[in-house]
């Protein structure tokens, strides 16, 4: 995977992460929430966060000062 492809993938993951955040907020409204669905979305959101972190770590190398 090239650096450009990784950057595009990173942007897609960030958008999906934000979309899940909005979906979770909507399901948390009174009378709208299915707790099992919310738990699944939160689990998916955590997986996305981990994937984002891996790509960001690869793209942004540690600089030892």
TrEMBL record:
InterPro entries: DUF465, DUF465_sf
A Pfam entry, by short name: DUF465
Protein name, entry field: DUF465 domain-containing protein
Organism field: Novosphingobium lindaniclasticum LE124
Native organism taxonomy: Bacteria, Pseudomonadati, Pseudomonadota, Alphaproteobacteria, Sphingomonadales
């Amino acid at each position: 995977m090239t650096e450009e492809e990784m950057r595009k993938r990173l942007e897609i993951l960030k958008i999906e992460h934000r979309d899940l955040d909005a979906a979770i907020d909507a399901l948390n409204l009174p009378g709208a929430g299915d707790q099992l669905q919310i738990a699944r979305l939160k689990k998916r959101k955590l997986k996305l966060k981990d994937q984002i972190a891996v790509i960001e770590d690869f793209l942004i190398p540690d600089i030892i000062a």
